[in-house]
Amino acid sequence: MKRFIKGAAIVTLSSGLLFSSILTIPSHSNAQAKSTETIEQMLAELTPAQRQALEKLNVSNKSGLQLSPDVDLKSPDKVSVIVEFKDKPAKVAVVEEAVNGHDLSLTDAKQKADEAHETFQNDLKTIYKEDLKKKKDAVKIKRTYKSTINGVAMELPADKVKSLLQSDAVQSVWSNHQIKIEPPATPGGTADTKSEASETFPGVSKLHNEGLTGKGIKVGVIDTGIDYNHPDLTDAYKGYRTQKGDDPKTSNPSSVKGWDFVDNDADPMETTYEDWKKSGRGEFVDGSAYYTEHGTHVAGIIAGRGKNNTDYAVTGVAPDAEVYAYRVLGPWGSGSTEAVLGGIDKAVSDGMDVINLSLGSNYNDPTDIESIAVNNAVLSGVTAIVAAGNSGEKMYTLGAPGAASLAITVGDFLMVNILWKLF
């Protein structure tokens, strides 16, 4: 399945909120500290339409193998898959149980989610006993998810994938798709950057004058990384910065907000021109450059502070917001579902108030694994802004995870005159 990242970065903090004013679960403290009263209050304030949306989410869970047609289940070659467990992430489980009229404490929900991982680990030892005797890494867990899906990313021979369903913990198994940059569907002329920059976002200055600047809001940009040395972004960026002598690979993910899921370290810097020069690789693949800038572009739209001493300084929609980077797309703007899920999962765990994903697929599926993760992020109290896609304006051209029921799905440069709904 082909994936894309928006050719024109979107204005993320804008219109159409479904749940941001209703999901009052504080996003800055851990799950143990959330009160049942808060969740019950949230549920009591749901409109009939919102409650119906949650109930539909409950009954649309897919099970079994959800793999791409090109996966040959008879092949001994290794494939990468996402395994989703039956037990939901703790916060999501509490909300879903409450919608169904049942009580479940966050402590118990977290325990159930953790036990699913233990069950799965033990089941692997039984299911693949003979394979593991021959080779210790015959089946390998590469990444663990607990906040927006409960499950793992793993690698194993394709002809062994179906056996994963023998585990009592497993709900479904998904393909780990590759993500590629795709240009806008309708080619146009070169934009007048200076004109755009000088005007920035028409009308937004009025909101800034009223004090609506995003102060105190944490925004996670799930993208190609961020050039946090850029003059317009260096003060807005609050994540890890490489200092002289630092080794970002020695950092513990739980000790920093933000992460590089491409290089698996704490430093989510964009892929630079210098990186390309050192790589010895081709500069372009399918029209995409080895070096990237998209995440920086998006971050500038969100929280640029207009400090660049040039004609192109940008003041973003929410210049006082705090920006964190989750680098899920690397050289040539390419990545994987595994990394995107990791970015969403950690952003929720890190306590982001808003997450932005200017990426997605070229098919319309509100129940794929990325859409599930986005929905669960919203149920956990995070506002999720997702690109609609570049496939046109006709029916079914909206791509997942923009098709997710609870996402705010947007296209191109949007109206910002209702930014106050977020702040």
Descriptive notes:
27% of the residues lie in helices and 17% in strands. With 423 residues, the chain is α/β, with parallel strands linked by helices. The strands form 5 sheets. A 6-stranded parallel beta sheet has the order 9-12-8-14-16-17, sandwiched between helices. A 5-stranded mixed beta sheet has the order 2-6-3-5-4. A hairpin with a 5-residue loop joins strand 4 (140-145) and strand 5.
| Helical residues, percent | 25-40%
Instruction: Tell me the radius of gyration.
Output: 21 Å
The sequence of SSEs as H and E is: EHHEEHHHEEEEHHEEHEEHEEHEEHEE
Spatial separation of the terminal alpha carbons: 37 Å
Poorly predicted segments:
1-36, 184-199, 413-423
The average pLDDT score comes to 82
Estimated share of beta-strand residues: 15-25%
Placed side by side, the strands forming the largest sheet appear as: 9-12-8-14-16-17
User: How would you characterize the largest beta sheet?
Assistant: 6 strands, parallel
Indicate the overall shape: globular
Give the tally of β-strands: 17
**Pairing-aware structural class of the strands and helices?**
alpha/beta
Total helical elements: 11
Layout of strands and helices, then pairs:
Blueprint: E1 3-5, H1 36-44, H2 48-59, E2 64-66, E3 78-85, H3 90-99, H4 106-127, H5 129-134, E4 140-145, E5 151-157, E6 170-175, E7 178-179, H6 193-199, H7 204-209, E8 218-223, E9 259-260, H8 273-279, E10 284-285, E11 288-289, H9 294-303, E12 322-327, E13 335-336, H10 337-349, E14 354-357, E15 359-361, H11 369-379, E16 383-387, E17 408-410
Helix pairs in contact: 3-4, 10-11
